[in-house]
Amino acid sequence: MADLLSISERIIDSGVLSEMPNRVTQELSEVADGLAVVESFSHIWGLDTGDGLVLFDASGVLTGMEAMESMRGWRTDRVDTLVYTHGHVDHVGGSGAVLADADRRGYRRPAVVAHEAVQARLERYRLTNGWNLGINARQFGGTRNDTMRLSPGKSGGKLGERFLPDDVAEPDVTYSNTVGMRVGDTEFELHHARGETDDHTWTWVPDRKAVFVGDLFIWNFPNAGNPQKVQRHPGEWARALREVAARQPELLLPAHGLPIGGADRIATVLDNTATALEHLVESTVALMNQGADLDTIIHTVSVPADLADLPYLVPFYDEPEFVVRNIWRLYGGWWDGDPSSLKPVPKARLAGEIADLAGGPLALARRAAEVADSGDLALACHLVEMAADAAPDDPAVHEIRADIYTRRRSEASSLMARGIYRGAVKESRAVIGD
Questions:
Q1: For residue 148, what pLDDT is reported?
Q2: Residue 195 burial (CB < 10 Å; 0-12/13-18/19+)?
């Protein structure tokens, strides 16, 4: 077993990201007596109450079975309760493996507890199945037109044409704001929060001074801006972190990344994360109130350097700029403040006009390459995208486009940006015939 608390202590106390905090090993580590985690995508946390296990999350469809096998190498007791921290598929997709385990052992079905909004999320996933498959394909390296087809791996799961697995365990116990729960001699307090999702649950265990926070803390900059997903709530996320901190926990147990021990260390981490989100919200809203448009705001607002440099706020998954856009969407709607974008012409028509002015699509693409060579990849992407819109089937244009987005991807910090840029490269390669 790895000493996960020691690893997180070294990273936080040194301020140096010397080791990867988000590990997917499928291995179990006992963090405290009767408390263990299987590091997966996402984790499964298990708490032995003496009268059955309480599990927090079930990992995903491709990892759930193996993660559950690791949990069973630690305890074979009946699973009394499965708590969903929220309804994302990497947290609920492996629940079929949890139910199958109960069936094999002759145990009753675990109670599945979640916030009442989780059910609506599951229904939305079924409604937008193709859209969500496409998002994941692009986010993790595909194109706009791909769907994710994952074949069975060691874990035995298969996603196929379903974003939400058919055997996902529906919640049978829900709550709206706060609810208490008792299993064996252990008391649990479940609290609703809106942050990355609108259906999030964080759970306080008073006897252990431990808090299961799900994705409220992920060892990356908070996923409050995802450009391909529904609305996030960064202000409420920050308030939830401060509510967690008010309990003065001594163990912080996230669904991604390392657990953290020590009341002072946890308080610092929660305060810094909340402060970063609050800064983005306050700065963005202040500029909105002054009449600034979205273009001005996204090129003005940033996270203070002393927070941006912290090893647990690295923009590896999401980015502050994307969070600013989500704050605008939350308070200001979808229009960006540019009157020409309110009722635009088809982008291919605009691109054709610009390309004609430049001497044709290939001339525009070559100018994009020159701009890229000068170091301005952001501007180069605008120009080459217009060239490709004006000449969508021109291999020479797409050769340049693929090169520019390959270079842009190499400089991107977040997984979201890298996935989208890689998707653009694959699109152009398909036109070229590579």
A1: 31
A2: buried
Q: Which residues of the chain have pLDDT under 50?
A: 143-144, 146-159
54/186 Cα distance (integer angstroms): 10
**Superfamily (CATH) of domain 4-272:** Metallo-beta-lactamase domain (3.60.15.30)
- 303: tokens are 């996270």
Each residue's pLDDT tens digit, 198-257: 999 999 999 999 999 999 999 999 999 999 999 999 999 999 999 999 999 999 999 999
Determine the CATH number of domain 345-432.
1.25.40.880
DSSP letters along 305-352, please?
A: HHHHTSTTS--SSS-HHHHHHHHHHHHH-S--S-GGGTSPPPHHHHHH
Token pair for residue 110?
A: 């675990």
Torsional sign, CA 90, 91, 92, 94: positive
pLDDT at site 242:
98
Which residues, listed in sequence order, are joined to residue 46 by a DSSP beta bridge? 36, 55
DSSP structure string for 170-216: PPSEEESSEEEEEETTEEEEEEEE-SSSSSEEEEEEGGGTEEEEETS
Residue 29, classed as helix, strand or coil, is strand
Angle at 67 between CA 133 and CA 29, to 5 degrees: 130
Q: Token digits for 252?
A: 């912080």
pTM value?
A: 0.93
Cα 54 from Cα 7, distance rounded (Å): 25
Whole-number Å distance between alpha carbons of 130 and 125: 9
CA distance 89 to 99: 16
Domain boundaries in the chain? 4-272, 345-432
